Structure to design on (326 residues):
């Protein structure tokens, strides 16, 4: 297999500030360190203050440092007082799964000193616009079908119009009959929040401009999409993505997709396959080593529902990929 390399440059704000995943937002800051007469020379203390999206964090914080693991409650000001032995401390903090963890550099604390450190948890939610998710339905015979869609965000344009659901008759070839009209598929778009903590950005594909068509033909065929679905996919996405020399592509499927937009079909299909593509422009000067993402496939038997969609996002460009030298 041909290897693809990526160089990721890390910029340090200073020896006081530290960043994690988003280089524009400081994640922790050493405020000050002063002698404390209430401490013995064999003692030192940290005053750790916590904010989550600039709001005082008043819940329990999980922390680890130098081999110790604790779960501590903040006070009403979002502070935790921690008495330790003098020395160097590397901390790791966890607040909630919708926030990134914070890992500090080594912080040196002197005997008899109290050091104030401020932590700011950054939300791992990333708002994206779901572009052209389309739903195909293939009953074994002509059948009345009802579909309820609930994106974890705001539903935008739909076609045919979504009125508390889609209720229609579908033929076995996928033709949809609604309001005396025929449709090839159900179209929707909307906004949703992607949890960046749950996306493994070290897995995916780096696809060149000229390689988009064969990549999608091969990948979508492996997943089990038919020729019409693949044609619809390619003719929509390739013109949009081909303006970039390289694109990073990551797919989410089925249960993971359901976390961002649930789909309730009545009667229940025998097989449902949902695929959603997250993609980012990658500068051709960058090089990256990626683990090729494993693509699931599904069986087209019985009453089958297929959905595909996608969203352009920039958070892959800032995320913690495998950082190496070529």
């Amino acid at each position: 297999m041909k290897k693809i390399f990526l160089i990721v440059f890390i910029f340090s704000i200073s020896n006081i500030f530290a960043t994690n995943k988003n280089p524009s937002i400081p994640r922790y800051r050493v405020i000050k360190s002063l002698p404390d007469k209430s401490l013995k020379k064999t003692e030192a203390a940290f005053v750790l203050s916590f904010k989550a999206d600039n709001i005082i964090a008043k819940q329990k914080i999980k922390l680890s440092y130098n081999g110790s693991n604790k779960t501590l409650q903040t006070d009403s000001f979002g502070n935790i007082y921690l008495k330790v032995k003098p020395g160097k401390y590397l901390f790791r903090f966890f607040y909630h799964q919708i926030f990134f963890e914070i890992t500090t550099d080594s912080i040196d604390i002197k005997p008899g000193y109290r050091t104030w450190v401020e932590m700011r948890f950054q939300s791992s939610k990333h708002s994206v616009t779901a572009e052209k998710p389309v739903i195909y339905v293939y009953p074994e015979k002509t059948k009345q079908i009802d579909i309820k869609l609930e994106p974890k965000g705001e539903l935008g344009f739909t076609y045919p119009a979504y009125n508390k659901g889609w209720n229609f008759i579908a033929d076995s070839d996928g033709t949809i009959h609604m309001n005396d009209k025929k449709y090839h598929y159900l179209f929707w778009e909307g906004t949703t929040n992607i949890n960046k903590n749950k996306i493994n950005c070290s897995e995916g594909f780096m696809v060149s401009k000229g390689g988009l068509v064969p990549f999608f033909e091969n990948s979508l065929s492996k997943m089990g999409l038919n020729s019409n679905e693949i044609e619809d996919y390619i003719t929509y996405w390739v013109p949009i993505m081909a303006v970039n020399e390289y694109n990073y592509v990551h797919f989410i499927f089925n249960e993971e997709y359901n976390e961002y937009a649930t789909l309730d079909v009545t009667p229940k299909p025998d097989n449902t396959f949902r695929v959603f593509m997250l993609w980012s422009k990658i500068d051709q000067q960058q090089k990256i080593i990626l683990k090729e993402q494993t693509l699931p496939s599904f069986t087209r038997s019985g009453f089958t529902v297929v959905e595909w969609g996608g969203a352009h996002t920039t958070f892959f460009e800032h995320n913690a990929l495998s950082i190496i030298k070529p």
User: Anything to note?
Assistant: Residues 28-121 form a domain with the Immunoglobulin-like fold (CATH 2.60.40.1120).
